[in-house]
Amino acid sequence: MHLTVYLSGEIHSDWRDEIAEAAADLSVSFSAPVTDHAASDDCGVAILGAESNKFWHDRKGASLNAMRTRKGIEEADIVVVRFGEKYKQWNAAFDAGYAAALGKSLIVMHNSEHAHALKEVDAAANAVCETPRQVVDMLRYVLTGQLPD
């Protein structure tokens, strides 16, 4: 068995790398949004031309990024959505909702401080966890049936 996993959400830490490194021995392919914040914000105007109005600047970028996000979520077997500690990730909540609407297996990751704020998102998930290691342990279990040591 092979899994395709889309890693959505917070882009200000190395949680994606932690998961990929810990899952190196598993048959898993990972995809993700563009995690270079400046590139993600400015892709629309870099490709389609400058905008004097910030709304249209952001709209161009969001529209391009949405193509990548939709493709990644639609092709994934499992979607992992991480909510970070510092920023409000409205896009992560949208991604979790989109994945749930498509019937994708969904893992939501956040610290316990955000449990109340994310209760509806958590209710839509197949699993809720706090660490990248727990994500890898879940992937290992799904693929092999093995429990962590």
Automatic annotation (TrEMBL):
Domain of life of the source: Bacteria
NCBIfam families documented for this protein: YtoQ_fam
InterPro entries to which the protein is assigned, alphabetical: YtoQ_family_protein
The protein, known as: YtoQ family protein
